[in-house]
Amino acid sequence: MKKIFLLFVFLGACINISAQQTFTAYFDFDIDEANRPSQKKLADWIAENPSAKVLKVYAYTDTVGTPEYNNALSERRAAYALKQLNAAEVEVAPDAEVKGFGEEFDYASNQDENRKVVVIYENPQKEVKAFAKAVQSAKKGDILKLPNLNFYNNSDIILRESQPILMELLQILKDNPGLKIEIQGHICCQEVEQNDVSLRRAVAIYQFLINSGINKDRLTYKSFGSTRPVYTLPEKNEEERVANRRVEIMITDN
After folding, report:
1. Is 13 part of a structural domain of the chain?
2. Are 108 and 147 contained in the same domain?
């Protein structure tokens, strides 16, 4: 219960950035260029978001090596990301914050998750976001993936870059009082689930929505372990593992 309360408080403090979105690129060990899967994802993101305006570029490392070395490595990763954005003529705000944090952040136990750059951006020309549009057109029984709503490994705490989509889900539920959903939790990596992680993930989102004012009669939850992966187990890389650590929603009434 303490974890759920902390999740609620942490996200409640982030309501003012709910209009912002995030993109995450991952890096291999001690490398300052994104790995191949993330390079493709970045190219796809640029093509799909021509009106994006970048507000922040935050870069991180794992905890291997000295703090001084990791600070420099994270700065190089941030510079790499900014160079790619500029080369693609993506708009970057004049006051955009470009910063390397090295290992000075709330890092995950899985080192692969820490080697990343997070791009925070907004799409001012998109009045209706893709997920909100999908919810509007969904029918009872449809299952919808919450884009980028992912979790730390073996944890029910969402990734920092997942905050905006969770806030968007909350707003959609507030704007559509007849909408009812089932929250479905999933895991990565393990054929046999341990510690009920997928259930804890679903419950964490369920509790957050209730604490944020959504009537519990509109919400149910269910866990699926690793029985419905986005990517077949064993996953090939960290991007696939992150994608499998997720919750989805099923429309139960609208």
Report:
1. no
2. no
Whether pLDDT at 14 is above 60: no
Query: Residues 30-39: what's their mean pLDDT?
Result: 96
Whether 7 is covered by a domain: the verdict is no
Of the three residues 60, 91, 122, the one that is the final residue of a domain is: 122
CA distance 184 to 246: 8
Structure tokens at 157: 């705490």
Q: What is the pTM of this model?
A: 0.63
Alpha helix locations (H) across 88-215? 130-137, 163-175, 197-211
Residues in the chain: 254
Residues 145 and 184: their CA atoms lie apart, in Å, by: 10
> Which tokens in the block code for residue 93?
């705000």
Answer whether residue 234 shows pLDDT above 70: yes
Which of left, alpha, beta for 141 (phi over 0: left; psi -120 to 50: alpha)? left
39 plus 139 within the same structural domain: no
Hunting for tokens 């997920």 — which residue is that?
A: 131
Average pLDDT for 92-98: 95
Provide the domain limits for residue 62.
19-122
3-state DSSP: the chain helix, strand, coil percent, rounded to 5?
A: 40, 25, 35
